[in-house]
Every structure is written in structure tokens, then in C-alpha cells.
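Q: My collaborator sent me two sequences in one message, no labels, and asked for predicted structures for both. Can we handle them in order? The first one she listed is below.
A: Yes, handling them in the order given. First sequence, followed by its C-alpha cells:
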Amino acid sequence: MSDSNLSDQHQTLFLHTELSLLSFHERVLNMALNPKTPLLERLKFLCIFSANMDEFFEIRVSGLKAKAESAVSGESFDGLSPQLALEQISVRAHDLVKLQYETLNDQVLPELGDYGIKFLARDDWNIEQSKWLKSYFKREVLPILTPIRLDPAHPFPLTINKGLSIVVDLYDPDRDDSHNIAVVPAPRALPRYIRLPEELCDAEYEYVFLSSIIHSNIKRLFSNVKVLGCYQFRITRNSDLYVDLEEVEDLARTLEGELPSRLYGEAIRLEVSENCPGRILKFLKNRFQIHDDFIYHVNGPVNLNRLITLPDLVNRPQIRYPVFTPSVPDNLGPQTSLFETITNSDLLLHHPFQSFAPVVDFLRQAASDPNVLVIKQTLYRTGSESVMVQHLAAAARSGKEVTVIIELMARFDEENNLSTAQTLQTAGAHVVYGMVGKKTHAKMLMVVRREGRKLRRYVHLGTGNYHQANTRIYTDYGLLTSDKEITQDVHEIFMQLTTQGPNPDLSKLFQSPYGISDMFVERVAREADNARQGKPASIIAKVNGLSSPSIITSLYEASQAGVKIELIVRGICCLRPGLEGLSENIEVRSVVGRFLEHARVFYFENHDAESELFLSSADLMPRNLRNRIEQCTPIQDPLLKEAVLENLKKYLKDNTNAWLMQPDGQYVQAINTGEDATDFNAQNALLAHYSDTY
């Protein structure tokens, strides 16, 4: 199919990116609705949905809003204008938020009460609890509150992004404007829910929301006027950072100056208590200049995602996912030299089913080994107090040449990455901020070691970040190898990153920008040629997002040629499967479960030759394929390749956490069919396969 024909039919062929992402958030919410999900995990999924929606409005909706307000904005590649997309998002998002709070109030909180975990409304407090909470307010809350009664001398305070605030409706008969308003911002230092002393409670765990405590004591803040009511609200702001990289001389210093602006960007969404009266709502609406489509009335805490810490505070293992211990490959012991192991054969790790500890040990051994001369690593997200950063700093202090490529523009991790950069620079490491205008998203760690008269390179290449906490909840692969061509390729990419050079010629790896996209399209075309010749042809791809028009076009053409295409796409998918004459040979499924599916894997059958399987840091999205430094690594060992392929087949067999995409972009759950059908959960099967403790 020619590009001209595709462009004429784009409305039919491509789905809208943001609407597709919203569908993923809906699938996350469905984990909270599912009674088979353990109860405390259902609460977690409600919180994760809230956090997802926060970022959706901060970045995606704010971007669409800017396009809609731009005189030059037009249709996107799916044929939907920004304004029409915003209208459709509003309808769906309001329905999802309503369902979220109905699930919280009608199912999750009442069922938690059956397990001795209760959140008490003000009407439920007994006399002793009321006394304790009044004392708590006086002791812990009142000293750090700043209530502001509005008048010309006291303007509306700056409300920070996603911060809890209370708007207070006041009546003062001695003033001309007898009805007036006050605002009480809740300091972020205060916990959003407080546990009552056990001796005052009927249940083991009883909590009260901070907003309820402030509400019950609001008259103490405004003793000279009548309080008619108070209502919690929360503003979500545009949180994208706009940095003109061509004009910036010092990116780190510029980011330090820009980060505070994220707290006070343009107001995008208003969440407010559902009982907020119209007069107060109108005031807030006008104050923040927010359209009705972006106002959300909620029956519960407006900052629901702060409840995500609760499961770790209560001792109720029976309503959580079973505990598991990540396994370690049999050939790795406490005293194993990873250099010797990797010299003998490649080592592939599958997280979180297998431990991330060997990767940490690889860096630890390199940092302390006197024969190691050079360590180079990319860091996109690491988390605070990263053990890997500590090992890098120790290596630098010991005199090794340590070079770290830190991506300062990793969204919402900019501040932590600035701190990491300072830590490493202080230790003596060379810190580089990547390529101008292109985020460094590749996951690479290289060690250069002197062995006799030669220097030997060892590398770790992954699909996920060097973030230890995430390795317990994200599914990812990591390859440790000393293959000469692969390690040479990694060396070339590091040289490019530090010298700002063009894409190097590589032997085995593929690299974005453009290299991974070209590789993928070429191999899809090869499968299509095989199918046209009557040969078996198949493709399996597992990614987090698929929105590249050129990739989608190539898959459509392969489907028309008869290639069997199985796509496991966690989030955004702009391809439409199952369209007669176009994509009837394409199946798209999304797996949403206990762990966040994060690994990127590409498999090509390549009949009459050796099949090919790649692990990649890149999704099949324009930003990854054109505007980022990414790496894509072949798995060469036949046993490792077969192991990854078997894992992919588990996901294709899943009928408990899998959702099947329909031609119109909607998803239906994959379910058992037939009398003998049994439930199959891919993540549980992988836990059982890798771990002896599950």
C-alpha cells in the first residue's frame, strides 16, 4: 500500500495516541475492579490509576490543549483534531474517575473494614477519638497551617501542582461582601491520613484523612466569622519543561532554574469535593480559568494516590500478592567472578522473576577490581540513594576512569538526576549529559579490564532502567556479554555520546535515531517476501507503545502478504488489528497484571535461515525511533533465544490478565473458551518457572 493511499485513509488506519493511552489507564483501573485481585492490591491499582491520570493531564492533555489553542494546529496522523480529541477524552475520563471512586467507596473501603482496616468519617468519631484528633490538630497541624482569608491585601495564594487545598465558605454580616472566601493549603510535610491510637479503636487499623481533621477544626482558624462550609480541591498543572537546547549553554544550571516552574504551570484540571456549592465552584473555575470539561467532582480524597503507602503499613499478607524471592541463575554463587562467567557464555536475566543483584555485583566487582581500568554507564532513572551510583562513585574515587551519561531531561526525574550528577562529579567521575536535542534512553554499562597483555570489554545491555526498586515491579531483560563485536559496538555508541558525533557504523547492534526503525521495517519486509513465496512467516513484538506510522504501515503490508503477526503492546497502540483486507493477520494484546510489563522484544521467524530475536531499550514510537539514543541487541545464544521465545508464548497464552484489542480500538478481556479451558496467568507462570519460593 503506497504512502499516498495511507494518508488518504489515515482516519481509518490509525488510532489517536492520547485516546489509546487513556484506554491503557482504563485497563489499569480494571485491575482494581477485578475481585480476583487481592484487596490491598486493588487499592494500589486505584492509586496507580490516579498517578497515571495525573501525568496524563500534566503532559498529554496539556499538550493537546496547547495545540487546540494554537492557530496552526491541525489534525494528527489519525485524522482527529486536538479539540475533538479533548472532547472525547473528557467524556471517557469523567466516566473512569466516577467508576474509580464508586469502586473505592462501594467495594474497596467496606471490604478493608472486614479485615480491620477502616477510614473513619467525621460522623463516625467517638468522643475519645474526637478529643485525640483535636489534640493532634493543635499539636501537629495548626502550627504549620497558613489559612488565608481573601481580600485585596490577601490575594489567592499560589497553589502548587497536585497539592491538597481547602476552600472555605465564610459569612461575615459586618462586611459589605458578606459572603467571602478563604483558602487553606495543606503543607506537603503533613501526612494525608493519620492512624488513630489502637487503644481508642474497635479495629486494629483505623485512620482519618487530614482533610477531615482540618474540616472538623476549621472554626478554630476563623473564629471571628461564620463558617458555612469547607471543601477540598486540587489543581493539576502543565508540567512539561520547555528548554531551548540550542540556546542553552549549561543544561544542568538551566534545569535547576526551570524545575520550580513545574509547580506553578498553567492549570489544566480541577478536582473538587462533589458537595462543593455552585457559588464556590464558580469562583474556583474563574480563578483558574478552567473549562467545565476539565472539572472533576470526586466523592472522596482528591489526592487518592497518597493512599498507595497503606498496604505497606498494615500486616495483612492474606489480601496482598504472595511474597516471592527473585531467583539467581544456577551458575552464579556468592563468590562467583562475573568476569569469568561472562567470558564463558552470555548471561541473560529476566527481572523481576530473576534478581537484579548480578548486575549490581557486576558493577561492584568492577569498582573494586584493580585490573578494571574504565567503567562507562548510561543513567536515565536510578532512584534516590542508588547502590549503583555508590559503586560508580567508589570506582571514580579509586582512580578508575568512570564516565556516566546522565539524561537530565528524564521526565519527573530531573531533580534526582541533577543530584546524581553532582554526587558523581564530586567523586571524580566524568559526567556527560548526552546528545543535544536527543534524550539518551539506551541502557548500557561497559567495563574495560586488563587481562594479561590485552584489554577486554564486558557489557550489560538492558530493556529497563538501572533503578533497583523498579526491577522488583517492572518486567525487563538484561544481557551480560563479552562478545567482541557487541562490546565494540557499545564502545562506539559511548564515543558518539561523548563526542557528539554521528551514528557510528555498528556490527551487531542497532541504534536510534533511525537505525532501529530501519532494521525493524527491513525485517518485516523480509517476512512479507517469505509469505508471498508461500513460506512460513511470523513476527512477535512485545513493546510498551506502538505509534510509529512507518512501522504500522510496514506491519499492515506484511499482514496483507499473509505474515502472522502477534503484538503484545502494554499501552499506546495506534494500529488497528483485524481489519478485513488490511490487518486480519494481526493480533494485538495488552497484558496488565501484578508487574508492569516493560521489556521490548522483537522476534522474526526468518524461514530458511536462523530466526532473529532482539532486546531493545526502544518502543516503536516516533520519539524513541527518531529523537532518542536507543540500543537494540541481538540474542545470539540459541538456548537464550529459545528461552525468551518461550516467555513470549506464555504472554500469548495468557487468559487472565490479557486484553484483546478490537478493530475500533476497544479492548475485551481474553477469557477461557471450551469446557476444558483453564486459567493461565503469564506472570504467575514465569514466577513459578524462575522461582522455587513461589
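Q: And the one she listed second?
A: Here it is, processed independently of the first:
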Amino acid sequence: MNLNEYDIIVVGGGHAGAEAAAAAANMGSKVLLVTMNLQTIAQMSCNPAMGGIAKGQIVREIDALGGMSGIITDKTMIQFKMLNLSKGPAMWSPRAQSDRMRFAEEWRLELEAIPNIDFFQDMVKGLLIENNKAVGVITGMGMKIRSKAVILTNGTFLNGLIHIGEKQFGGGRMGEKSATGITEQLVEVGFESGRMKTGTPPRVDGRSIDFSKMEEQKGDENPTGFSYTKTPKLKNQRSCWITYTNPKVHDLLREGFDRSPMFNGAIQSTGPRYCPSIEDKINRFAERERHQIFAEPEGWRTIEYYINGFSTSLPDEVQIKALRAVPGFENAKMFRPGYAIEYDYFPPTQLKHTLETKLIENLYFAGQINGTTGYEEAASQGLMAGMNAHLKLSEKEPFILKRNEAYIGVLIDDLITKGTEEPYRMFTSRAEYRILLRQDNADERLTPISNKLGLASDDRMKRVDEKYAKAKSFVRYFETESILPNEINDAIQAGNGSPITQSVKMVSVITRPEIFMKDLLKINRVKDFIKDNELDEEEVEQAEIQMKYRGYIQKEKDNADKLKRLENLKIPKDFDYSRLKSISTEARQKFEKLRPETIAHASRISGVSPSDISILLVYMGR
């Protein structure tokens, strides 16, 4: 390694660290990536998947900004699904099953191909701080490496403690030691720290699973992908499988509750609300006789399966006994048991919107160290921290995304302004402007900004310009071209709509709820326009969304303006939140606990969605 001073040192090689190092280096900074194990860069520590509800939008935003997660997912995925297609485009969310080993390998190779990145394998046990400024790191071997900025992306490794039943041992991940020293140093200089918990399910030998007793879950017939670049299309896919627990499984799990760290007091920290352990599910939802269990393949060639829905920290003998009572797992052979892990985090209210800490200049936090959960949330923070560290060292303006510009903007604003007392994950409901923040238009929203900052390439920018120019030309065609009743009435009546009686503009037809682009693509002149102008599927889809949802987009803007005018409305001190039957349980619990004084205060509470506020306003009006 080179002991000369670096511009930026990134501590940790997970999803946040990988994106941070790549972004800063691609923008021109000299970067050192220090990680405890170079063989586990961008390791998928939990489920072998990227994307999902709201998370898929984040991956597309990372890609639009010039990050790598989308490209690497596309290159290594084994199944792709676009979720929520039965709903409007604001809810469409891409999700991919990944080849775990190939994903980490591809990230490693991509990082090694960036000339501005050096690598070093060691634990970082402390920071070099001079005049309240981060100027380097101290490694476990005692080496002092200097830099102008440091980005901490430690994941679950800070004083990590693994729990399996009554067994406890230090570790940041199964088989890997925890990191010590950093928390203690930062607390000493004035930072507030806390503890959080996450967990993971058992891994099982696929040869021991009876898939005939499960339901097959296939990928999309015509899979797309995450990246706006021309990554290879997925031609073959591997299926996932679904089965269910039953009362016998639940009874077997309950036998170990007295030795569960979740219930015997061994775990004091808060786990993810929306990804509970199996023991937590059967305890909290005792009335349910079954819960979904997914068997997800870990890659193209491996026999290992991830048992999604069976996250647990119960004793290993209880885990295998209960799992074998689940249909399809009667003869299951466990590769390794599930476990819970506690780790240190730093409440993110101690950060600026650039993810730089308020206490120590040029020190940035990204990922689970900020109290988030999920690869996608971590990767987006790493990207933003890497970009902002480079921009600050270059004496340029910071890059801060607003809530109406990106899910990433919502994520960071939530963390900085609201903080979090439980592992934070993104949902579409957290975004006030989700019709504007769709997965299909992230390139239009973000690539121009990133291109000006020097991260998204000119080639990416050219591709965005061409895509939206073609989509707009198709919209103009619909606005000027007329359609006759005999060309479309069969499709209208098939959708139980009222037939047209005279020639009308095509745009007025596509906005009907029963009509979709596929209906109009049966008309030869529409097909000819697409062919003559060389429009691809993505450009046609973009034109359809722009036309079909114009009214919804305008309505959302109007609602946002209305909410802004009402945000200072005071809430009566004795307001009875139990009357709000339509809001989420999380919102009701937090309203009752925190007793917000105003609508503005209520809207800033973590986990409270815009729809919760709207319902509160309705009841206050009554």
C-alpha cells in the first residue's frame, strides 16, 4: 500500500463503503478503502436480493446518479420482478434475486478497475483527529494513515455481538470479528451512540428441500433491470418457492422462548419493525395460524438457500426442529442457524444533510452506522457521502437532494431532521411526492444534476436526452393525431367504458382508465410511428405514463401546497388519537407517546406518513 496522504479514506467495504469509494474516486479523489476482509467487499450479509418496495426506486436513483449498484445487480441477478404492477406507476418497484458470490465478486472487480482507489486489509480502531477535524485513521496493526477526509461505513461491526439462544459471541457477521475502538473514541469526543439489533434466518441445503410441497414463484416473463445503461437482459431465471408455517411450528418455536435473547432480556436494543423475527411474529400475531416462508436460491450454481421469513435467534436445536415441521423442510439440512446481532450506531441527528458530522469536520457517516437497515439505503448514503466529501475537498457547493427530488432526499432528510430509534427502512409512504419520484423517471430527475457534478458520464447524459426527446415526440403525436370510433371502441367496451361517437385526439383516449398503450399498439399507424422513430419499450412506457397520469401529478402538487399551508395548525392537547382508526398502528402509537403540538411536529415524526397527517387533519376538522 501507499503510505502517502489520501484525499479520502473509506472505512468498511460493504454496500455503503463500495459506493462511497467508487463515487469519490470517479469524481477525481485519491481514495483508500480499508476493510477487515477484502474477500467480502459488498457482501450480501442477509438476503441475496436488491430492490423491493421503495428500495427499488433507490437503486434506480443510485444508477441515475452514476453509482454502481444497479449495474452490478443487473450483471449478477438470477431473477427479476417488477412489484405492484397492478397499482399505479408510483408504486412499481423493481426487485432482483442476486447470485450472492457473483455480486460480491463483480463489485470487487469494478472497484479494482478504478485507478484512484487503493485497498488495505485491516481493522480501523481509531481516527486521527486534529483541531476537530478528521485527518486519517489508526489501524489494528498500529499504522497511522493520513487523509483529508474519512467516511465511516462500519455496518453492524461496531462492537457487534451475535446471539443464538443463550450463546453470545463478538462478531460483525457470522465468522467475522467485530470492530472495537471507534465508538469509544467518538463518545469520548462528544458523540451520542446507541445500540440496534438486526437478524438473519438459517441457510439450508437445497438438496434437502422438497419443492413439490411448495408453490413456485417465477420471475417476470420479460424481465427488465435496474440500470438505465444497456446492461445485458436476463434470459434464464431461477425460481423462488413459498410455503407456510402452521400451529405445530409455532408450538415448537414457543418451546425455546425461555432461552430466546429476544424475550429473556439478553437483547435490550431495538430491531427492525418491518422485518421481525419468526418468534416475534408468532408472539405479536398470536391469532395467525400461519406465516409465509420463502426459499430463495443464493446463486446460479450453489445449493444454498436463504429461508426468508424465518429470521430467528432461538437456540439452534429449536430452529431446526421447528423448521422441519414446515412443509417442504421435513428433511432440511442446515448450513448455518439464524442469529441476531447487536451493534453500535450514532443517532443521525448529529449529521449535516451532506452526511458530514457536526462535531468533527470532514468526518462522514453512511449506512447502518446512521441507524438504517438495508443494502439499498446504505448504498445511497455511501454514494452521497462520497460525492459530498469530494465536493468539499474541491471547495465546491455540497450536493443535497430535496424531498421532492428523490427517495434518497427523503431518506437523508428523515434521518437528519427526525432521527430514528429503530432501524430505518424506506417505504413509498414516507415520500410526500411519490408520484413524482417514480422508478421509471429517476434518470430524468437526477442524471443532469450528477453530470454537472462530474459523476454521471456524458454518455449517460446523452442517453437520457435521447430517451426523453423520443418520449416527448410520441406524446406530441398523441396530442395531434385523431382516432376513429371503429379503431378503439372494441377495446373501450371490453374494459366496460363508454364508447366514443366521433373522432377524438388519441391523448384523450389514453387517459381513460380502461385503455392502455397495448390497446393502441394494435393500430398500424401507431406501430409505424414507433418503428419509424425507433422508440424502444422504455420510451413508449415513459410517454404513456406522462399522458395517463398528468392529472394525478397535478393533484399531488396541489395537495402538497395545501399541506404546507396547514402545517402550523395546532393540535388540541387532549386530542384522542384512538379515534384515528384509519392511520397506521405505528403512527397512532407515536402520536400517543409524543403528543405533537402542531401538524408540522406530527409530520416530522419518524414513521408517520403523509396519509396519516391527512387523516389527522380530517378528524381535527370534524
